[in-house]
Each structure stands twice: as structure tokens, then as C-alpha cells.
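My current task is to audit a protein record that another person submitted. What it holds is a sequence and that sequence's fold in C-alpha cell form. Thanks in advance; the entry in question is below.
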Amino acid sequence: MIDLHCHILPALDDGALDLPDSLAMARQAELDGITTICATPHIRDDHDVQIDELPARIAELQGELDRHGVEVRIAQGGEVSQLGADGLSDAHLRAVSLGGGGWILLEPAPGPIDAGFGELVGRLAARGARTVVAHPERHAGPDFEPLLHGLCERGCLLQWTAAFLAEGDAGTTSYMTKLAADGLLHLLASDAHSSHGGRPMRLGQAAERLRELGFGALASWSVEEGPAAVLEGGTVTPPVARR
């Protein structure tokens, strides 16, 4: 499995506290069957992440994982804030794309997703970047589903947090079932920040939940084929959800 959204780089944003924390996160991922993790630090004003330093930080963490025998690969990425995306140069936008393939993990501004988000998606597309929408479940508001359909029509992929599905109550499960049936559930990712608490480095439980709900093909695609296609940077077409 591939995790496209994770704050695993140590002592950088609000993610892993230090290198031992990063190693523990990677070990947790390995136990779950995750083989590739996109390091997606926050790219926004309240975190001093230097994009030009990210390749070295990724290489350093990968070296430590290799030295400790943790069989997980760290891929490049970033969680780009809606509020700062326009200010990134084309080179920096490419540098924080997932796997370097040109897909941007775009974090909506606090509050409900609105029409301005879709307008930004259009501006990014004009610059050659495609959009994965990060954790839309945290940005519900008026006309939420029509707005999501509109983003899909613009070519966006929707990345839902695995724990939201795996640990949700009956109401959440019913809602996610409806979204999947309506073609509004594409990718699952952990959005894990630490091994000490919070969201776990785990995708398998959420994928199994999708299988239990009758979406077997989507369950595999959302954590395997879909993320792999994103990293490759090509055109990505989610499967039609069938129960």
C-alpha cells in the first residue's frame, strides 16, 4: 500500500517530533503493509518549511530507515495550503508534488470548501499541476457534495483520512457509503503526525471497511493502484464504485 499524506519528516512541522518518532511511524506503517510513504510537510506560512531542503531531509530519513532495516520508501511531497499555493514558483510547486509527478496535495483553507478552492484548482491546472484534495471531511459546509462533484469534474482526486472511515460511527459509515457510491471517494491516506498519538500509520483497516461495505475494487484502488498512478504523474481515472 502507498500512503500519500503523512507528516513523517522529523522536527519539521507539526509532525514527527524527532528521528525516533519518524522511525516508529515507519515501523507502524511497515506492519500495516505500507511500502511507500509520501512525506508531506505543511507548506504554509505558520510552518517554516524550506522547500529546497526537503530532498536532503528525505534522503537522511531514508538512510536511517535503511540502516535500521525498515523496508519503507519515502517519496517527496508536501501539503500545500490553499492560502499560499499561488505564491509558489513553478519549480517549488513541482518540488512538493507527490512523488515529483505533478499532482499537488492541496489543503483547503480553514472552514468549508467554497468556490474559491475550485478557482485555485483551475489556476494550478493552467500551470501544469493537478490536484489531490486533502481531507475534505474536515471542510464540509453548504452545498458540500455539489462542490465535490464540481472539483471532480475539474479532474481533482479526493483524499479522505483513513481513520475517519475506519473509526467512524454508524452515521459516518453511512455517509461514506453514500459518497463512495456517488464517486466521491478516491484515495485513502493516514495524515499521521506522530507515533505518540493521533491518527495512526494505518490504511489497511479503512480499506477493509470499504470491502465490508461492498466496494472491493475501490478498496484496493484507493490504497494501491490509485496512489501509484498519482506518484507516476499520469492521468488518473478512479474506478466506478460498484457494490
